[in-house]
Design goal:
Elements: H1 2-10, H2 16-24, H3 34-47, E1 52-62, E2 67-69, E3 72-75, E4 80-83, E5 90-94, E6 104-110, E7 127-132, E8 136-141, E9 147-152, E10 161-168, E11 172-177, H4 184-188, E12 195-203, E13 208-216, H5 217-220, E14 224-230, E15 233-238, E16 242-247, H6 248-255, E17 265-268, E18 271-274, E19 294-299, E20 305-308, E21 313-316, E22 326-331, E23 337-344, E24 354-357, E25 365-368, E26 372-381, E27 384-397, E28 408-410, E29 416-418, E30 432-439, E31 444-453, E32 456-465, E33 471-476, E34 486-492, E35 495-502, E36 506-516
Antiparallel strand pairs: 1-36, 2-3, 3-4, 4-5, 6-7, 7-8, 8-9, 10-11, 11-12, 12-13, 14-15, 15-16, 16-19, 17-18, 20-21, 21-22, 22-23, 24-25, 25-26, 26-27, 28-29, 30-31, 31-32, 32-33, 34-35, 35-36
Amino acid sequence: AGGGRAALRACGVHNVCRLLTRRAHGFYARDAGVAHRKNLGLLRKIMCQESTKFKNVWTTHSASPIAYERGRIYMDNYQCCITSIAQQPRILYQKSKCAKSEKIEDALLLECPLGEMLPSPSDYKASLIVLTVQNWLLRLSADSGEVLEKVYLAGSCCKFFRYLSWDTPQEVMIVKSAQNKLPAAARQAGIQQTVLFYLAVFQVLPLSFIGMLEINKKIFGNSVTDVAVSNGILIVMYSMGLVRLYNFKAILEQFMEQPFDLGQEFNWNGQVGVVGKYPFGLPCNIKITDTPPLLFEASSLENAFQIGGYPWHYIITPNKKKHKGVFHICSLKDNALAKNGIQDMKCCSLEPDWIYFHPDMSGRIIHVGPNLIKVLKLKEVKNHADQMEIAEDFTIVANRENCVNNSVTVTASGRVVKKRFALLDDDPEQETFKIVDYEDELDLLSTVAVTQIGADGRAHLDFHCNEHGILLKSIPLKESWDVTYSHEVYFDKDLVLHIEQKPNRRFSCYVYQMVCDTAKDDD
């Protein structure tokens, strides 16, 4: 503390806020991360220059899904890894084709935490955690595909684990089973299935087992349709649109029967084995015997529920089909609707608009419609400090200057023709927003807008200033974009990657890289 005050005096700054602002701008050369921040600032300026182009340097096609994670392209069910960081994408490793029993169901990229001592040198490098169809959890080297660790999940009872997710990113991982369903014959015989899901909880790096628990009808009710864990909250969803939140950490502490470590020999409910080894797997050592204290509940159409902002607010859609596309922004503290808290774009479109809290942790809200993106902010109501209102921060509008949608036209012969219907807001022949994303390292908001005329669709990726929404750069994508296909676009510093899924499980991947060239050419 004394050293911090001395630093403040030495630089002539006596206000903490000013000090933090100056540090963020890189005023102190000895401060950790200054060089990295400067480099990213330079990269952003270079990238947004008019002379900077993005060139399609690589294209591939596949009969199996293509995935992208932090500069690595995965193909053939994660058996082939291609680095996209090199000037020309190249294969990092290619493993032999795996059997159906070894098929990978889900994967998470695991990156080394900063400032921590880890037990193994391999822990300091990025790795991939994968879940196989036969209930094996594997940690693979991200650079070679070598198996670093393996854990068998399922024990004596039949658990089909299918999903990986983060509770706390890069710290606590959740492995979720598919929903347990009895065969038709068993249901006809009157056999009752009370366990709906299993959740296995792991600490990562080093990989360690925290516990396994079951989501049971007897505890949470008969109409449970799904569960999730995020940021220490157990989220339980019900068929009638109800969403209930519970303190997940408190559940682990209260109902843990006995802790176990991976590799530990155990004698559990008459079973003798080794934790995480075949054929015993993991013990279900967290038994919820009573309904945990309820933190919060809300009713929302299709269980759509989000929490964010400052102070805490949540977004729901009233639980009636006629309200689809209407969003209510309410205070988490007292459920009070914020002033101007009902957001409705009144879109007439095939695909609905969507809304979410901005991932830049600013507390803002992004609302995306077919031709309009609204970035909203929470602020105090004047003269009412305890009440919040929703205000518009900035908007981004699709380019529809050349679009003419007259309901009455006159032919060359003078005959008046009236249209019987109006164009939809997301009609393919009008420029329509399809994807909105945020690049955190460059602090840029990216949008993909598409116009399709006949069979030929054209898309462009735009970069906007995240603070004010000003258009900084537009990149045309060379390949045709069919709005009926599924698309993913990744913007990762100096790389743009487009993954397309066509009918009959045909996949394509297009890689664009930044090219700085003052010469005027087609690249």
